Every structure is written in structure tokens, then in C-alpha cells.
Amino acid sequence: GVLQPVYVSSNTCGWVGCDVCSHWCHAACGIEKNLIRPGPGPTLKGPTEMQFHCLGCGHASEMFGFVEDVFKCCVKDWAFKTLIRELNCVTKIFKGSEDV
Question: Has residue 100 got a pLDDT over 70?
Fold first, then answer.
């Protein structure tokens, strides 16, 4: 068969990680299992933000900064096809979000 490219968790939004215990989850699985979902913003009174709720320790990590960091760090090295894949992933992560 055809070999598929390997994506390292640090250069793609396809994997999301916990800020506390460094547990990683495939973004599609996190969305499917409702581990990536809106949660309270930093003020608890303001708008919600998309968060990854870690299965390992229960911590909620905000997604906006994570995605922003991945794009700032990696977009310059991505091929067009990779950019499209990452944008599709980000669209799924933030679907229904107030993080616009």
C-alpha cells in the first residue's frame, strides 16, 4: 500500500494535548467523544471558549491559543494540501464556538 505521512503532535491541530499532564488525543476522537467542547471563559462570566477536556487528568485546556501557536510555528513549512487539512480540522474544532 501507499505509505501515509506521519504527523507529529506538535506540528498539527489534528492532535490536542493537555496543558497539565501532557496527555494527547486525536482531535477527531476528542470531537466525537465530546472532549472538545465549549467551556467557561477565563472570567466565568464572559463568553465561553472551546476547550479540550483531558481524559487523563480532567483538566480543561483552551483550544484557541493552542491552534494559534501551531499555526504561528508551523504554517510556513506546510504544503498547500497540509494547510487545507489543518484548516478543515480547525473548522471542526471550533464548530459552534464563540471563539471567532
Answer: no
The residue with greater pLDDT, 41 or 7, is 41
**What's the DSSP call for residue 86?**
H
For 8, counting Cβ atoms within 10 Å of its Cβ (0-12 exposed, 13-18 middle, 19+ buried), the class is exposed
**Axis crossing angle, helix 80-93 with helix 63-74, rounded to the nearest 10:** 170
pTM across the whole model: 0.80
Helix (H, G, I), strand (E, B) or coil at 9: helix
- Secondary structure of 15-67 in the HEC alphabet? EEECCCCCCEEEHHHHHHCCCEEEECCCCCCCCCEEEEECCCCCCEEEHHHHH
